Amino acid sequence: MKQRSLFDEPVVVQPPTTDEGGKLRPYQIDVLERGRAHIGRGRKRGIIQIDTGGGKSFVAAEVARCALLKGSRILILADRIKLVKQLGKALRKFEVPFGVIMADNTSQPWLDCITASRDTLHAWKKRELAMPDPFQIIIIDECHKAPGYVYQELLSLWPQAVVIGMTATPARGDGKRLDGTFQWLECAVPISQLISEGWLVPSEVYWPKELAKQRKIGKAKREVAGDPVSHWQRHAEGMATIGFCATINQSIKFRDEFLRAGIAAEHVDAGTPDAERERAYDRLQSRRTMVLFSVGLLIEGIDIAEVSAAIMLKKFGSIVEWRQACGRTKRPAPWIGKKVSIILDHTGASGVHGSPDEDIEWSLDPNSTVGSRRKAKEKKDGINNIVCRECGGLFAGRATCPFCGAEAPKMKRQSMDRDQDARDEILSRRDMDDESKAWAMKETYHNTYKRIVAIACHRNLTFKAVLALFRKQTGTWPSDCGIECPPQERWGEKAAILFPGYTMKKAKGKT
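RESULT FIELD:
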């Protein structure tokens, strides 16, 4: 296999220069309307969940634009400089005038819309500096961190404000609950729908089946399976890649391994000067650097559409970190021919947290977690996850493997005394066959239909409106997806009459 020289300059196709400006997608408009309904009922603190790459910053900008028109003051908080800058870009697209409170980059802090670094604003409070005038609306980016001490201190300054959190992963990795800070949660659309509509690209996951099995039963001793260099060359060569490591020393070690193989690689961490970090991001975007390693720095806030692959070299004890990290690779980039993202899972994390394309049931229920809800669903449906011994594929509810046709192993849990099976393991592809993909698409259409029917019942709309909304969101008609509809002569009737007792709770399968 030909090795890439450090000085090879890949052909860089520039992204399109056209920009639609401040326009929201249908699902963004819909989730905003649901959020407004909560606020109208006096529930002043809530979360809007949209998967990474689904346009959370645009939703935040639209909230700010509408609030300014009503004479309100808005504060948009983020915990990283990169996030503050990204929010500023979105506000400019929506033509929202704003000031900035961020260390040495503070400007026009007297304006009615402010984007602020959480830490800078908290430092102002601690030093008893003059704080901005009261805000009526506070938006928190990556709000799964909101239960933290610093955010709580800032929210206490404006207790009467409406607080809207934005995140792809409304859960805490440290076990702290979000329901103590927020009263409601509205999810935009499942990630499978974002993929099917082309807003995100699907992921191909390559994983170590033996190490994944060991991690699943808590017997894993080895941290990394397989050789990251050779697997990257086999599955992701030529793709801009982010490497997620457990420690700085590990990050530097693997950077050096890639450099010795003639692959342009770099390392950044919190100690890297801001200007040098930005230059590293630019080199990754143009693929002068092929692999950029770090620890936690790149899990959030790096929105480089050209990034098409990730090397997972840490265990990811939290599904929040796992989904956020995988999300860095899922933005579409048609100008470079990107159609899929590659996840090289060297630690078996996908065996614990699932595929990055899996639809997740998020909730503020204090009595359950993402993991417990998944297990409860598996138990209810009589489904057990099975790892194929032949190809390493993960499947459930079948007597034979859908990928290679091998007979499913007996569901007998065996302890593993050693991690020898994981040494030098070749990562195998974790993927769905055509039948499974078709089934998943059918489920997405049915879930979308149920949600739209519930919305139509709530808003007293006719069934014609249901058809129009479904067509607008999916590009097809319900009948073309195998969904049984009322007779055509009744389409002019109210949905609430055709579907008595139908509610959002029922649409989510919670009857």
